[in-house]
């Protein structure tokens, strides 16, 4: 669980790449 997106990725591009990598590994990303 991640509280803030700024803790997950340093840049928008990095966040997009991480989301794509997680998706390829069948990991869902959800915002609450």
TrEMBL record:
Pfam families: Resolvase (PF00239). It comes from the Bacteria. Residues 1-32 form the Resolvase/invertase-type recombinase catalytic domain. GO terms for molecular function: DNA binding; DNA strand exchange activity. InterPro entries: Resolv_N (IPR006119). This is DNA invertase Pin-like site-specific DNA recombinase. It comes from Sphingomonas aerophila. The lineage of its organism: Bacteria, Pseudomonadati, Pseudomonadota, Alphaproteobacteria, Sphingomonadales.
